[in-house]
Amino acid sequence: MLVQSELSLGTQGGTADPDKLTAQRPDAVVFNGYANQYARDRLTARTGERVRMWVLDARPNRSSAFHVVGGQFDTVYQEGAYRLRPDDPGDGGSQILSLAPGSGGFVELTFPEAGTYPFVSHLMSDAERGARGAFEVTDR
User: Fold this and answer.
1) In what order do the strands lie in the sheet with 81-84?
2) Which tens digit of pLDDT belongs to each residue from 85-120?
């Protein structure tokens, strides 16, 4: 489960900075409370293993676009409905899970090769503020 949120830091011991919230310029955009934590402590998977990631956009103002670089989602579940399933006759894939503020869903994929697969909020300014990480994929 990845909860994307943002930090608009105010004074020490205080609340969020209302000017930063209004300007939509947070100090950090994070997954599960910490900037860049999954870039340092990567999530792990094995080749061929089905991976499901629940993602919640807990931000107050901006949408999220969850993306795994080098991966392709064969399942997309968004706001209570499947948008893509592996048994769909069209045999399609998706690159992004788009979420409005306060919404959530999950995606599934398998990694075909060992390696490092970065994931980001595809709003690149958010990725630069900390909404990024990676999967470290090893052979079975």
Assistant:
1) 28-31, 2-7, 50-57, 104-110, 75-78, 81-84
2) 988 877 789 999 999 999 999 999 999 999 999 999
